[in-house]
Amino acid sequence: MSWLRYLLIALFVLQLTGCGQEPAASGPDQDKLVSLSGTIMTPLEESYLYIYKEGMDLYGPAYARSEATGADGSFSLNLPEGDYIVVARKRQGQETVGPVVAGDHRSEFIKLQVREGMVTQSFIAPVKVGDERRLSTEEASGNTGIAGIITDADGQPVTGARVQVYDHVQMSERPKYVSSQTGPDGQYLLHLPEGGTYYIAARDKFGGPPKLGDLYGRYDQGTIEPSAVIVRQGEILQDVDITVHKVW
What we know:
Layout: H1 2-19, H2 28-31, E1 33-41, E2 48-53, E3 64-65, E4 74-80, E5 82-90, E6 105-106, E7 110-114, E8 118-120, E9 123-124, E10 135-136, E11 145-151, E12 162-166, E13 177-179, E14 187-191, E15 196-203, E16 215-218, E17 229-231, E18 236-237, E19 242-243, E20 245-246
Parallel strand pairs: 1-8, 1-9, 10-13, 11-18, 11-19
Antiparallel strand pairs: 1-4, 2-3, 2-5, 5-6, 5-7, 11-14, 12-13, 12-15, 15-16, 15-17, 16-20
């Protein structure tokens, strides 16, 4: 049995030797971080640089985002080497996602190669003037639109929800119009520039497809497909109520 004893001792020594080895090196994407810095003109304080990978929805959640710029408009962040699409934005409100609307600042989308070393890039983000896909407010001009209340599965009003209006039943592209957030009473009023046939959804988050835990619902009348809402010119269509449910 002595040979078995020697074998066990040898295995034990090998295990102790292995414990002192360094872990395997991680991949290059994790190790090679490149510093990306620059300025968002004019300079633009409290603006952000949004980073997208190629193929991502450029109007959805970003792959990375810089910290808010200071008074000099400068930004700096570290990224793995790769090819990206970047855009600078500054919104008038407190939101960090959602459509850029009239009065907000946005640069052009720029393709950027981030390679070893330091990358410096400046952005010009002019103010946006006029956009039919803007957030609608109660002060908006015109007397055409829809109104209703957003409730949850228990019938309680939902605060902070937005109504999204589409002009096609698939509701697969960006919404054509988006309401302001609902208040504690869950009510909304969305002005439209013209009458027409629309399809309506409501959610508590904006940007990209609904995720687990989000509140989401479509206007329907017991049908599988969303029900069309026909709005006549010069009419505020009332009682377009929507129930939202948690996405599971």
